[in-house]
Amino acid sequence: MAAAVLIVEDDVYLREMMETMLHAEGFAPITAPNGAEAMTLLRAGAPAKVILLDLMMPVMDGWTFRRMQQADPRFAAIPIVVTSAVEGSSTRHLRAAAVFTKPLDFAGLMTCLHQLVDH
Asked: Rounded to a whole number, what is the distance in angstroms from the first to the last CA of the chain?
């Protein structure tokens, strides 16, 4: 069974491109345009093994989503991979498995995802 990866990204083009690439790599992508919808999906039972998380989004940003995720024992252990234009000290406290700055290194991102779900 393909590992589910939750893509939380407000840029429609990038979200769809990531979804297509994940399908091609054998993952089962689930998408959300912001943190609020991502949290709704998780609460509804979305089986995410990894979360690709943008930080700067409308409605609910990635930092708020991450705080809510870490506060909920059902989702706290799901690793996140930050995919954002933001870098440096503002991402360190998120305790991400990895941080990829935009423009994304898709080959590196896919390698990272395979390592996270295959360990």
From this structure: 15
pLDDT at residue number 108: 93
Separation of alpha carbons 55 and 60, rounded Å: 9
Fold of 4-118: Rossmann fold (3.40.50)
Q: Which amino acid is at 116?
A: L
CA atoms within 13 A on the CB side of 9: 25
pLDDT in tens, 14-71: 999 999 999 999 999 999 999 999 999 999 999 999 999 999 889 999 889 999 999 9
Q: Residue 18 CB: number of other CB atoms within 10 A? A: 22
Is there a contact between 6 and 47 (Cβ–Cβ < 8 Å)?
no
User: Read out DSSP for 78-89?
Assistant: S-EEEEES--TH
Residue 38 exposed, middle or buried by CB count within 10 Å (0-12, 13-18, 19+)? buried
